[in-house]
Fold each of these.
Amino acid sequence: MTNNNDNNRKSLRLLNQYTIIVVLIWILIVLASLFWNLYRTRRWTKDIAVHVARAYFEKDMAFRRWGASHGGVYAPVSDWSPPNPYLKHIPERDITTPSGKKLTLINPAYMFRQMLTEFAPRTGVVERITSLKVLNPDNAPDDWEKEALQRLEKGDREVATFTEFKGKPYIRFMRPFITEKPCLKCHAFQGYMEGDIRGGLSISLPMEPYLAIEADTRRTTVLSHLLILAFGLFGIGFGSSRIRKHLLRQMEMEDEIKQQNKFITTIINSLSHPFYVIDVNTYEIVMANTATLAEEEAPSQTCYSLTHRRNRPCDGVEHPCPIEEVKKQKRMYTVEHIHYFKDGTPRFVQLFCYPVFDHKGEVVQVIEYAVDITEQRKLEAQLQQSQRLECIGMLAGGIAHDFNNLLTAILGYCEIALTDLPPKHPVREYIQMIQYTGERASHLTRQLLAFSRKQDLQMKTVKINSIVEGIANILRRILGENIQLELRTASETGVIKADPGQIEQVIMNLAINARDAMPEGGKLIIETSDVFLDEEYARTHEGVSPGPYVMLAVSDTGEGIPPEMQKRIFEPFFTTKAKGKGTGLGLATVFGIIKQHNGHIWVYSESGRGTTFKVYIPVTKESATAKQAIEKSDDIKKEDFSPRQGTETILVVDDEPVVVSLLRDSLEPLGYRILEASCAEEAIQISDEFEGRIDLLLTDIVMPDKNGKELAEIIKT
């Protein structure tokens, strides 16, 4: 479109130039015609004057021949016709008639002179006979006539000159007198012979009438040429104006089309997803928006080279070709494809394909609008993984809770049995083995409860740096000498609300996993910093709410985690370690603890290039507690414990009867009164009906109807 407008502007400039050239040519043509016609008018005027002069000459010569052929005429002698003294040599110049009347010879020259004397005043034409050898001095030539006679004697047939005569414009014309036989009667004595040039007939014709006609003709010619010039210029201007209007209109239309195209292009380019038009026969991309070509150094020529990085059209084996489907169905078609960036990175896209028809109703082009759903697929995968982990957590939590109740009874009765048995009893060793195995099982159940987020947390407002720095020395002992521990803690971080022991457990589990991934040694890096997760991050990470977080990152330089395993690493009992090297609950425990803190954990890893776990815990507005140091179990002073007798009343509530039995069997021998309930409703009823004072409530936290905390609040009131 730009080229068309440039061509139109060039045409407009050429039109202006050509218009000026045509105008100049037209003016030159009209002026040339005018000057030619004016010249021709002058020539016609002269030619007419010459023709008239010739006519006078022929008339005079006819008259003279008539007179000469009759030998002259005799006329009565009078004052008008006295005897011609120049004819004295003629014997019969004068005669007398029988009646006595005197007559004199009037020769042609005498007769001609008398006629011209009468004729000249009437016409203004001056005619006379002249010669270089005159008989009558009155016929002597003037300067012009003398020159003309000389030219005639040299051979000119006639002499015609436009000049002033008597102060007025005249044409002076002369032709020779040829001596004829009748002329010898009067002029033989002068030595002339028949055929000699005896002189010439001079005719002086006034030009005023002819010049007046010429002037009128010139005016008419000039006026007509001015009209022709005006009409021509008008025609040129009109034609140029029409062409100019056409070009300007075309430019306006092209500008409008350009603006429309620009508007459409702007709209198309404003689309955040690729939009392109494909020729169905050649698969060439005839138009594409900027989102389509964002990853390209230059636009690809075909759709399969752009989207699939192939050098030939798709064969439909991997996925249906949308172009072929649109051609076949002749309607809108939607399909999901995998497209590839220039670096080979796959992207999941949803293609919306629309046919473009020709006048015959055949599909000639296909409009494709590709919506990148890669992040959506990732979010769906995250959601599915989260839902799977949630289901697994619910299952694990339920099993762990019930199993923990059973273990509590087992361990409790083991403790009672060991208390009652003498030190050297042979069964004591078996009971201790049962107790040891039960404690290991209890540890597993605690991990499962952590994963299922059903453990009771001791929440405090702390700073993450205090926890990291407090556990650093323990980590160095656990990691060994071949692994370097590097702390990159921020100078200051926000305050979080967390269970310090559980966060310590998270760091410990991640560090142990990192150690196992670096059997040949390496580096473990623990980083902390404040971050703000914005809306864009929240859109691409399932479950994340925008806001300020404290980040804890644990990175290693180990073997890395393959992509197919990253989806399952937080599942309980899933492990890549050899048999006996791990329970598969370490990362599951980490996941449960972080989720119970309303936080998020993500893994970033490549095979052979190490792994990074990033933990995000929300910042709290509460102030950190004054005492943030974490007390270690080996720092707690153990006090001597000896059973004490009591008389108080204890209400025991648990939905597992064996646990209630264990507590009853353990406390009643010590003098306590035990009230038993299998659920919260039963406990409330016992509390309301019991007339005495209940001194202590021992209740399970998780129960079908109400949890232990709710039950405690109700009974207290």
Amino acid sequence: LSEGNPFFVVELARVLRESDAPAASSALALPQSVRDAVGRRLDAISADANDLLRSAAVLGRSFDLVLLAQLVGRSRDELLDALGEALDAGVLRESEARTGLYAFSHALVRQTLYEELRAPQRIRLHRRAAEALEAATSPGGEAPLSEIAHHYFEALAAGDAAPALQAAVRAAERAHALFAYEESARLYERALEALALAAPSDAARRFELLAAAGSEHSAAGAREAARAAFRAAASVARALGRPDWLAQAALGFRGMGEMGVPPEPETLALLEESRDALGEREPVLRARLLSKLTGTAPYSLSMASRDALSLEALGLARASGNVSALRDALSAREWACFGPDRVAERLVLADELIALGERTRDPLTQFHGYEARFGAYLLRGEPANADAALAACVRLAAEQPYRYVVFQARYFEAARVACSGDLPRAERLLAEARELGRDRTAYAQLQCDAHLLWIKLARGERAALGELSGVLLPRIAATWKGAELVANAAMALLAVDDGRADEARRLLAHVEGAGFATLERDEHFLLASACLSDVIYRLGDSRRAASLHATLAPYAHLLAFHDLLRAFAGSVASSLGELCLTLGRSEEAIARCEAGIALEGRAGARAAQLSSEIVLARALRMRGARGDARRAAELLRGVAARAPDLGVDWAKRFGFDPGTLEELPRPAC
């Protein structure tokens, strides 16, 4: 408002201090002292010029001579003398870029003039401005829809709300096409206000506008505003007994990019209510609801449940031929294939999503396909393919900037850098991702903090780990159903590292439950197993080592990867090697570690290789054959040389004396 003018700054600050008005309020009334200062400048020009400028103020900070002439019903020649006075007095500036374009010299000058208009004058002028803008648009030309909508909205008090409603919807649709989602949502909210005056009993139109506003808020990342709109839409649907509308509201309420995140009870209740009300009718909507439920607890906690729901949804979607249903069902099926057992199917689904997105020219569908490729290729340790998929995700995020997609693309970049071993740079990218997602993407903070915790563990930052893990891991274990497996495994690892053996054993027993073989093979399984292998080795628990070894052995060809965090702890083969150490099977431990190091090398997982080489060195020392001690020392010297460049304090991370290359005594377990 003040544009740096010291007097205006001081006066506005005084008013803000003495009132309850928020500092950012666009409706802040000008203090009288500011009005007086502006008034003295305006006193230098004629009454006719002041009248003209008050009308021009309705058009905004800048205005066009042709439009102003239409607004006041006078010829352009008649206006030039009055405008010349204003130019000479420094109240107006003339554009150098285009003849006939003027601007007020200061926003406060325009606001002062605008506030001098009585309400009936403003309303009439806004209405005439909207009509003039519409009339000035040539056939086939691009009308300034947002300006037209603004003027009609400001004229609402005149009682004719229909033009305001139509203009707001047209402008919202244009804003959506330009990816201006926040502006589009704002315009739909204005359309709802206009509808309340134009047709307050038109429930169908109200539902339509609420759903549209919710979708735009969701795209912009305004999650709570989106949920409020869809909650209101659900109320309209219930009142009219429309299960199809209720289903649409529930789908929007679940939000974009929220598969697997902890839903509030309201989310689950709305999805289930919609499913039950819909029954077997409307196969397209049923397919989409089942797709959402696939990634919603408690259904998401069982891989069998995910399998059944996603297959039913995909069957319905394919039979219907509906693009939206097929997109949702393919994404849900891909999510049902998380974990180590269906990697090949995930890649087939990814290809179909990409092809569907290309065929329908929908970059969001393409993004989900490339996201699926990125995760599957990282799990298999194929960096070139993973990098190609990541590049496509980044490109598509720039083309259709849904807020959660922009967040995810940056988060994926951070995860990929972390996988490659550049941990300091990964931390910087995670900080950027957290800012992109702050207050805009569900659980962005939790996701970034969880990955940061894993990085600090890999770097050996024990002090920072204690601060972060003491709050974060118990929170995840208590609130995020499904993720408690990996959270408890990580807490057990930190406990055993601190010498809290009893707590580590308690957590280990809790995680094991009825046996490692009964654990869900979901997105948490492999990363949790990598943590557990460390805990079991440190505790010397041979019984559990044998059990976990048998459970993990079928996945020796994969990396220990988390499909949501996109974090991994090296190769499954190296975890198997560590378990073999616990069992005293040095030959197998060496073979497993060598295979794991080779896979990590192909994947470019430099930080993970450090850990695998430590395990291999221990296995060599255990075997004690000729040359094993020398080879173990060479491995340890190599770790010591490479660790600093990766930001890893290898001595603290692995418990070695950097001088003697001998293991340091750790807290007794």
Amino acid sequence: MRNALFISALALLICGSAWATGKITVDPNASDQAAIQEWESDTRLAQKVTYEARHKAVKVILADLSDMTGVTFNAGYNKQDWQVRDRKMNIFAKDIALTDLMSSIARTMKFKWSINKTDVPWTYRLYMDRKALVSANAELSKSQEEYDREVNRRRENFLNMFENWDDDLTSGELANLRDDNPYAYMLNTQGIGALMQGVIRDIPGFKDKFLSRTNDMLSKVSSFSPETQEALLNAAKLSFSVKDDGVAGSGGAFPEDCEKAFSKGEVYFDISPDELGWKSYEFSKLAGLGLYINGRFFCLNSYLGDPSDPWVQAFAKNNLQAVENGVSIQHAWDHSEDRVQARIAETQMLEKYFPTEPQPDVADEPDLHIKIKVKPEPEPNRRVDLVDLEAAVAKASGFAVVSDSYKITYGYAAVSDSETELKDVLTTIGDGYRYNWDKHGDIIEFRSKEWFKKRTTQIPDEWIETWRADLKKLGYMPLEDGAQIAALTTPQIEENIHTDSDLSQSGLFRDGSRDIWLLRLYASLTTTQRKDVFSDMGLNTFALTQDQWQLMRRIYDINFDPNVLLTFLRSSRMAPNKYVFSIYGAANNNLLGKWSLWLLEYKEPPKPEPETPEAQDKGEKATAPASDSQTKTTK
């Protein structure tokens, strides 16, 4: 039952949330003047507060402010309204009027305040109205449309490259291609260019299937022309001669039994739409090409992409350098100077296609030209992040800072540690992290340019607390919890699971791992199918849906054909957190594949060592707020 409720809630989270209707007595955010007039009669709101929050939920922030000020603040329409209550914020405020802080919180988060005048004294509620929600969903829909258009543009570029492929190059032309287009050079030397030209020509309707990117493609080798079959075998032999570490020419000869059975093999074309994700520069892959023979899988090329993509070119150049220098691909990548430049170029290219909230016009006030030294102080063993820069700006400038907050904030801001004008510092931070900034009185506000997309990465705190509680209570993660987590999107896993000290204690939910795809397959099974998995007979995979077969192929490299070969998926529980999954042939019950799944085991985090008196003194100095005299001097 709990799993069914989770899946229903997850679908609601991804597709758009339904909102409970609450009684709204007054909307003081109709205009700034209206808010001031309403709030002036409540003298409690004139008090000044000093408050700090780092990635705190709105419900916690409002509870803190209620305790501090004696004013009752409520979050959301009700306690089930997690879309308001569980949203995270950063706040660094010193001696700021409560009314100003309330307005800034609402503005930054696209929320509104209502006043309940029937309560004595008045109480205040923070909520998101339907107009703002509709606007957020509209922006998200627009972004998805732009995303699809950009994906199609890249895919059409990809097809055009092979439709116009020229494999008849002189040694001089090939050498020039190595410098001008490393990606095309790599495809040429690997034999992939000629092969792809043949694949596109020989598979009926290939272009439409590739552009629709709905399902992966599996085609029999015998269905291709003799020229394409020859190109396919040559590419397979070249691929097999490359070891896993990327060094060419040392992988051995192509297996003789596979060459004899070559005509009975199948070509697998992976076109699953995982490109242009949140870390877009790492997800520029449009396709992958492989070959199944005698139950073995040969990867011909795992990273096919758009030749105009700077990240694809950098990836190809890196692989070539690895082969030429006799080092692993990972070693070459770790020492590549092109990687950072490719990332910047890719980000700039994406700026052309994806809608973002525009930077507001900020009045050129004298306060913005004060010079400050920004010295961020990240937690030990953690890189400088947006929240550290926001805290440093607040400390150095004397202004309060209010911001939305996400644990995953990809970006980098090269903020100078010398005296720099505040306006330039804010612009550098905004550009580096794809954030907009604004100034209202004594408060500087930050909001993600893509807040309408990034809000979909956050999930209810209740889910995380339930998974964490089960983990601690049992000492390991139950299979049902693991399946629920795996059913989240990759950005949701990165934002909520990879950043949780308890739930991230293993690589179980690493994107692309066999474990996560196994859990996603289990999550996709019906109640009856799950029962069969643990039965003596096992699950007859002939009944799997097309989507479940796609998951199955990601788990195990075998020549599956649900219309010809019946297999069984079995699982036996060996230890509380260990499951062994096996695949058997239906005809003779022979074992085709077997692997273990180790679910997360809880480990008590190490207790921090007590600080020495010297370290405590240093920490107090580092976090001490600026004095009134310092504040007046800097503003």
Amino acid sequence: MFRPAYIFACVCFIMAGVGAWYAADQSVKYFEHQTEAEISTALNAAGFDWARVRPDGLRVALTGLAPTEVERFRALEVITKLVDPDRVENLALVIPPKDIAPPRFTLEVLRSEDRISLIGLVPKALGRDQILRRIEAITEDMTVTDMLETADHGFDTQWLAALDYGLENIKRLPRSKISITADQITVTAVTESVEQQQSVKSRLALTKPDNVDLYLDISAPRPVIAPFRFRLALNSDGAELLSCSSDTEQTRQRILSAVASLGVHGKLRCEIGLGVPTTDWAEAIEKSLDALQELGGGNVAFSDADITLIASDTATSDRFETVIGRLESDLPELFTLNAILPPKLSDNSESSVIRPSELIAELSLAGKVRVTGRIDNTVSRTSVMSVASAMFGSENVEIDTLTDPDLPGEWPVRALAAIKALQVLEEGTVVVQPEKILISGRSLDEEASSEIDRILATDLGGRGNYEINVVYDESLLPAPEHKADQACEDAIMRIMTSNQIAFDPGSVILTKESERTLSIISEEFRDCPDARFEIQGHTDSQGPDDLNLEISQSRAETVLSGLLNRRVLIDRMLAKGYGPELPIADNETEEGRAANRRIVFVLQSNVEAANSKVREAIARAEAEAVAAAEAAEQEAAESASEEGTDGSN
């Protein structure tokens, strides 16, 4: 029989054990819950929303489906920052990787005058050697830079068709870049003329492979406009744009916008080309048109930086002086203004009877003048004879006219203006009609049209209607005496001795001082139109050779373009970059590097000799350096030997 006390003690002991077990169980669950919450919060904050945590006592299991092995490893790193790594069990799975996407084969071919570069990824089975053989077959003496990589992966026939198309056309385009993929080809090239530009575009479009997108950027050099011109007439009916030149599309839009604001009748055309006298061209035109509008009309003509403005005869003297004074102050530098307030014509001229009649003045190349047609009276005939005789010599003037008293009242003024205009020509004809004056012919003055425009506008008071069709014909010039080619090279070398052509650091933009030097050199080139020069670009040895070669080529081409902008004939010139190949000073010093960054003008017939001379100087300097080093080494050895002998004694 158990005693009650004993039984009670047993019951209490059992209940205490159960309570302890329950308390311990609750503690473990609380710990697991806290651990799971803390780790889950950290994983979510790190972006691992796929990860799940399963605590089991002191151990923690990572479960879930990781997108990559890297992601699984990073999730474990997050957990081990919170829990001892020995307590972490990795049960997460990784999503099986998809098939690796095939490589995108590309080939970019860049071609200049003497170099071809190949960049890209091509199929290994095709063989880069096959591509190089095709390139070398069309380049001959050109340098080929191979930066191709290969991938061992299959390719389709479309890639082959695109490749054949690109390699075939790089042969026809000496200055171009062709980018090739299986489904897209981009061709960027420069042609010699607008006609060639259209021909190249048509050929490329017609021969492109099927199912391949073709993008073309084919440009042509802009024409040289000499002189740069702008001419506009403004009256009560609006403005008429008679001629216009611009250097860029942006400049053209500015000019045409200013013209359109005046109210235009007729077409708006403005030719884009090279030769603008200053970058302030559009600004000068805008300010001149504003002044013309303030004066109530008239004519304005630009010939390069020379401006002729003829006000309407309705403008008052006070108004004219105020507007022109302000315009002269506002015009950009370089522009010169010739402003004219024409005299008032009599009111009778407006009411005169007009009948279809003509006065014709003809000038031959021999300097003979013949005037035929109608004149209003004998006094006018005598005036025309006197003016013509004073200009051309009485022995060279013949007048055979009929008197017609019914001609317009301003006929004598128009006739005398026509004779004055004829003096600007070497050969030509002036026809005076009641409604207009027609001038045509040839001249040795490049600004003949502007001069005739000024004469007629001044004499006719801005109320004349006239058409000028005069061409500059340099064939009328006597053959100039040109310098010998070698004398030209010597003269340019003398200029370059004290006026080097330099560029802003790390760029291909000429410094302002070098712009002036290039202008001086351009004057020398005008005396050497037949000389064939090579414009050489050289750099120091700092930086990669390929980059230096590219910079030197670009700088040489910048100089060539600068000569073109100064109206020097460059068809016989060649721009070539040599990079650091031909130094003339020590590249280890700043002074030497500055001397090596240079532009050199060399006759093409002297290039080989000039370059050989530099190479010989380089070889001598290297040989002297080696000899000096050997001598120093020998001297050091002898000195050491002598010291050893002295020590033994």
